[in-house]
């Protein structure tokens, strides 16, 4: 079993925590946009409270360990590994709870290049524990507004994990999926599950719009978030998101494997 100390060392060595690649400038820009309620940064969340940029800096300092000084405007952002470990323990606790009930789960990612393997391992473990891993709206079209204009994608599932891909003929076929922060994929999946009369998820696991979009609709949702993703931490503070795990969400995919082992061991779901 991976010890807490070994995982802390890995978080720092892999730059999942400690000084991370996300810049302070990027984070502050996201906080300003969130305070202005820009939908690109809200990613499906409709905050109940008014959040100023200073409020968000304070929240992110508390949740992630970034600098709480508004005058600190340059350099790399920092994530406190202790906060990551606490959140991973809470994440594992929620996994264990849904596994004990054999509850249906939905997993999805807007970061398939980095996080697909992490979620797929969770899907395998939850399935082995008796949970139904849901795959609603497979093949359904999703139109997402991007900085390049409106783009059409297809909702697909790989190893039980939802993602979006460009339609056939518009990609090389070797990409794991498209990068998106949009809440539209999870809204599409949940609407299809409801329309079919099939089970609805007791827990949604993912990132960005998957977590905020599901949480806003009243589903328990949790996942990782970087220092420039204030929406998940606001959702957690307001009660719409169950667990937001502070970590860099864009490092090499194999760097997340120790996190997978850790949370599955903590949840008693190791295979």
Description:
The chain is an alpha/beta fold and 271 residues long. 42% of the residues lie in helices and 18% in strands. It is built from ten helices and nine strands. It has helices at 4-13, 24-35, 39-42, 53-63, 81-100, 112-128, 184-196, 209-216, 230-238, 257-266; strands at residues 18-23, 76-79, 105-108, 141-146, 149-158, 161-165, 203-206, 221-225, 243-246. The strands form two sheets. The chain has a seven-stranded mixed beta sheet with strand order 4-5-6-3-7-8-9. It has a two-stranded antiparallel sheet with strand order 1-2. Helix 4 crosses helix 9, helix 6 (112-128) packs parallel to helix 10 (257-266) and helix 7 crosses helix 8 (209-216). The chain is globular, with a radius of gyration of 18 Å.
Give the mean pLDDT: 95
- The main sheet orders its strands as 4-5-6-3-7-8-9
Number of strands: 9
Mass-distribution shape? globular
Termini separation: 12 Å
Series of secondary-structure elements, N-terminal to C-terminal: HEHHHEHEHEEEHEHEHEH
Number of helices: 10
Radius of gyration: 18 Å
- Structural class category: alpha/beta
Helix content: 40-55%
Strand content: 15-25%
Which residues sit in consecutive blocks of at least 5 with pLDDT less than 50? none
Q: Give the biggest beta sheet.
A: 7 strands, mixed
Keywords for this entry:
10 helices, two-stranded antiparallel sheet, 9 strands, 271 residues, globular, alpha/beta
